[in-house]
Amino acid sequence: MNKRGQVTIFVIVAILIVAIVAIYFLLIKPPNETQGVYTASIYNFVDECIQETAEDAIYEIGQNGGYYFPPSTSTQTGIAYYYLNGRNIMPKEDILENQISLFIEQNLFFCTKNFVQFKNYNISQGEISVDTTISKDAVKIEVNYPITLSQGEDSARIEDFEEDIYVRLGLIHSSIAEVLNSSESGICLTCLYETAEENDFYVEMLDYDEDTVIIIIIDRNSEINKEDYEYVYALEN
Question: Would the pTM of this model clear 0.85, i.e. be above it?
Fold first, then answer.
């Protein structure tokens, strides 16, 4: 009899819980499913644009020796010198991070195109702010992009995005720095090839003019736009 009484109590409690949950969902305002779908769509759209623009940024700085806007100490084709007039002028890692951030801040809107494809929504955009962190095996991109979308009385806001681009940019940068620091002249072919072999890089050297050689580091373990990643810089003989 005691067991039957306990079962009866459990059944009553279970029924009460189900009833309370049902009443709760009936009383609250149903979510606007359409808005939720479009919020997700816009978030994914921006996320894809950030990834695309970040990859373009990393490619661009790789072609210019770590710069979006090449410095005055560059070749006429925009490749930055890392050794010039007897001095090591290789940029620090934080310079590369700032250049990537600047590229994304100035070029992301070319991808989003003012959200013209989302015609059913009123969309307002705030200022884009980007923070880039280079590690050994990846580049982390954190973007603050305030976006408010509204339709009738409903509105939503999305703001923070994050992407990891798996390019060994940090390893490339530290490897080049190691080679430059190991030679007073800036060009140590033995050091260059030993470091490349150790890190599974490939190296190409091109004569730019009588005084300048172009170094191309090729990393077949990293891809940008489905191509092996290249990092290019110049050295004065």
Answer: no
